[in-house]
């Protein structure tokens, strides 16, 4: 069924057929991304690829399947950590061996191997952070507020760009309901389970692939860790002067983060100042300079004002308009640059930074990052996916819901891959990066 020239629903088998049109020129990458993202509610990925290969008789060339394989390996490389998926890939390689596709498929597989190798290195680095460092014996020399903010941007970008689109579908629906968020531990095998109840729960139990990565949970854990890290560093200080310096450092870092668009770090730092153990330090707060107090007030208002920015950007693309999927998925403007908040939002951030004396200066265009608050992205995705796993009354699959979820997830994942800010190499700050991600922290209690 179509609406305004766009697919709105259909039975599973018919929608699968559209993945490989008879005419290669009609191949729709946006539809493929949207369908592959949410179809896993109804069919496992390796089963879907197997069905597609079975639809092409043995003597017939696989020209129709190679464009699909290219999009699949590029957009959802983590699916190919499944041995059953790789068995299908080996079958494709064998059938393309003596054809004009013999040189095309190896190129796709080389790119896939490079991406999976990058993922393994990232996971190995995350595991190295699990060995905690004792705060009491570790002596850390903090850099300037600007340098600290740049390190935060680097950490945020690396964690965010490794989150796979399918992880928003495979993560637990109770991910944000954990009462012990500060003690949050990633669970690589998190599944949807029967939390949604009814037919959808049965669908999850039988069709949803097991989660093979925990990048989404690791990034969420970092956001919670940064909030506690700031509080720990402030409360470790033994006198008011040292506490004031820590306040100045972290407020300056939050200021720079807002200026370049790193809303996730800025929000975590500002939330840390609101934690009861920090908020109760009345003497310390009273000793802060008037400039710092004004900065904090301005940043707080700005952070609250830009909270719904990403939501508005994705809602207009996922509202069912004809060009919604195409305009949202690329995550770039016509000239290929990353999307930016409105001028008024950026100027508000600049105003917050210019009215300071902490040494944080106006950012250059090549420093622009734009990292949305990750919890907000997860909330949007969890809300959007509720409609994806429920069939319509006529038994059709709701493709409009698929497109809505793809608009949110695709905009985030593609944007984070394209972010290419110019930041100084970690170099001498490698120890500090390791400390921030692995040091032992006290929880809020």
From TrEMBL:
One of its GO terms (biological process) is Ras protein signal transduction. Residues 3-117 form the N-terminal Ras-GEF domain. Residues 311-344 are annotated as: Disordered. Residues 311-322 have a biased composition (Polar residues). It comes from the Eukaryota. Keywords: Guanine-nucleotide releasing factor. One of its GO terms (cellular component) is plasma membrane. It holds the Pfam family RasGEF. Residues 144-445 form the Ras-GEF domain. One of its GO terms (molecular function) is guanyl-nucleotide exchange factor activity. This is Ras-GEF domain-containing protein. It comes from Anopheles dirus.
């Amino acid at each position: 069924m179509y609406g305004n020239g766009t697919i709105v629903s259909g039975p599973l088998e018919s929608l699968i057929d559209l993945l490989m049109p008879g005419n290669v020129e009609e191949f729709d990458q946006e539809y493929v991304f949207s369908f592959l993202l949410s179809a896993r509610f109804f069919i496992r990925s390796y089963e879907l690829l197997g069905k597609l290969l079975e639809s092409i008789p043995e003597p017939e060339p696989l020209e129709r399947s190679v464009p699909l394989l290219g999009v699949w390996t590029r957009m959802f490389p983590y699916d190919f950590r499944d041995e059953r998926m790789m068995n299908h890939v080996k079958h494709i390689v064998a059938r393309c061996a003596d054809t004009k596709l013999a040189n095309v498929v190896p190129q796709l597989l080389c790119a896939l191997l490079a991406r999976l190798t990058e993922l393994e290195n990232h996971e190995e680095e995350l595991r190295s952070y699990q060995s905690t460092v004792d705060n009491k014996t570790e002596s850390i020399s903090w850099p300037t507020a600007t340098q600290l903010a740049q390190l935060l941007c680097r950490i945020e970008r690396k964690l965010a760009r490794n989150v796979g689109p399918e992880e928003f579908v495979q993560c637990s629906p109770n991910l944000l309901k954990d009462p012990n968020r500060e003690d949050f531990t990633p669970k690589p095998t998190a599944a949807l389970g029967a939390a949604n109840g009814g037919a959808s729960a049965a669908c999850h139990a039988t069709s949803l692939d097991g989660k093979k990565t925990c990048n989404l949970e690791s990034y969420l854990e970092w956001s919670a860790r940064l909030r506690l890290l700031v509080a720990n560093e402030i409360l470790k200080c033994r006198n008011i002067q040292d506490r004031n310096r820590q306040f100045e450092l972290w407020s300056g870092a939050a200021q720079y983060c807002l200026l370049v668009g790193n809303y996730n770090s800025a929000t975590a730092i500002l939330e840390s100042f609101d934690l009861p153990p920090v908020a109760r330090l009345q003497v310390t707060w009273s000793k802060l300079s008037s400039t710092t107090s004004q900065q904090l007030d301005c940043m707080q208002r700005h952070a609250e004002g830009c909270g719904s920015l990403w939501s508005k950007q994705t809602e207009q693309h996922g509202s069912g308009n004809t060009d919604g999927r195409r305009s949202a998925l690329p995550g770039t403007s016509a000239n290929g640059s990353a999307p930016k908040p409105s001028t008024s939002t950026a100027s508000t951030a600049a105003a917050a930074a210019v009215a300071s004396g902490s040494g944080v200066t106006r950012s250059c265009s090549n420093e622009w990052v734009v990292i949305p608050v990750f919890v907000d992205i997860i909330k949007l995705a969890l809300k959007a996916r509720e409609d994806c796993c429920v069939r319509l009354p006529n038994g059709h699959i709701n493709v409009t819901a698929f497109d809505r979820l793809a608009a949110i997830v695709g905009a985030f994942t593609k944007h984070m891959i394209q972010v290419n800010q110019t930041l100084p190499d970690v170099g001498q700050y490698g120890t500090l990066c390791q400390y921030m991600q692995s040091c032992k922290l006290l929880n809020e209690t």
